[in-house]
Design a protein that fits this description.
16 helices, 508 residues, Transferase(Phosphotransferase), domain 1, Alpha-Beta Plaits, globular, 9-stranded mixed β-sheet, alpha+beta, single chain, Phosphorylase Kinase, domain 1
Length: 508
Amino acid sequence: MDENSAVSSSAMPEQVAVVSVIIRDFIHLTERLSTEGLARLMGNYYEKVEALVAQQQGVLSSVSNHGMLVTFPFVPASDHPARRALRFSLSIALIAYQMRFLIRQSFPEAGLDHFGIGVGIHSGEVMSTQLGVAPYMQRVVSGHAVAVASLLAGKSKELDWNVVCSEQTCEAIGRGVRVRRRAEIGADWLKQPVRVVEVLVVREVEGEDVEATMRMARGSRSGHYKAFEPLLFEPGEEAIQMNLPQVPGYRCLKPVGRGGMSSVFLAERLSDKKLMALKFADSSVSEDSEVLYRFVEEYGLLEQVRHPHVLQIYDQGVTDDAVFIVMEYLPGGTLKQRIGQQGLEAGDAWRVLREIVQALIEVHERGIIHRDIKPENIMLRDDGSAVLGDFGVARRMHEVRADGCLEAVVATPYFMSPEQALGMPEDDRTDIYSMGAVFYNMLTALKPYTGDTLESIVQQHLTAATPSLQPKYRHWQPLLDGMMAKDKSQRHSARTLMAHMDTFKAMV
């Protein structure tokens, strides 16, 4: 056919990985937004998606109002098509979170639901057809793989999964894929159901498990997603000579903290000169889908919570080489720094405990578990009030319960709960145990349990008696016992703990 033909087809079928992406509840957007507003919103969304397609060497085959189809063909000297398809699919999560923020900013009165997407991935043969007249041609693909990928995307809401991948495609992806749940999806036109998995992350480095934060290095810091410590850095040559990140709308002033996977900078918001903290996923790992997933998940969890004792999140975005979160800047440092070698006065320790328990009531009622409460992750404002931050390993409660068990321990050894030490299912009372350990640390400047080896510390969390408070704090021992009970069924929830604390007012 010549170049002006209305239809042309490829001569041979092609083996590809197919990704179908749908916008959930799209009709709700059309009902609540003007035509101009909807066009602006969708333009922003598809602009970001197209950049991801190009990055993973895919082909945007078709686009509709509420969805799209992307194919990933074999590319010489590149990763397997299924692996590139999965990276693309996981990165779409970042765009969804960004769209939620954009919608909240741009259409605050529209009462829109959360912007959500569903992704289906399947591999197989497709046929390509060019429709239209040059130069306005559109590539349309068809075949069994397309139908299956579209079916999986449609089922994502029913399953309550973000990414639904056929088991066959998951096996082709190879190393580093982490899945959580499995299911079978049927349809009248299928000869047999499709076995699918919920894909969470894909690790790019063989053998590396970035979720295993139980490490003893540097005083048992988690090593990943460490709380930033503003007092670690002072203005000087390092800040002057450093190549500071460039972010539209902000001016980075100096580094204020570093972690295994992130860096934090003090920044000035240009619109009102307000100081903020910008947390960046380091450029060396920002292409790693697992790190990106965790970074995006932290924003997704924190944006739900508005509480005076929870770190406030204002924005999330992307620079040329990194993703970042814009956070509240807390110049008062961390609780660990305040505890030091002497501990806190009784009144100060009690106040911090109350404030963080108040924060946990809100966090837990939102269905979130922090999972890494420790003095480094509690920060202080100028007035001394405490703020719970660093939700880098937090998870939603229903996700933890669905796992049945955990593949890796995600806590700091000195403050972990017995169930974390055993790799057993966690719930909101996991945070209460860790907060009890922090309360003991505040009063005594000591860790609840210490040892020469990781194993000895873990064993004490499992079997040793609750540490005894000094005689002057002995009236708080029952409270500590209720927070650090080995059996979580005997442990306080945040709300019952607050009620119990109210009975101690006269003793503070």
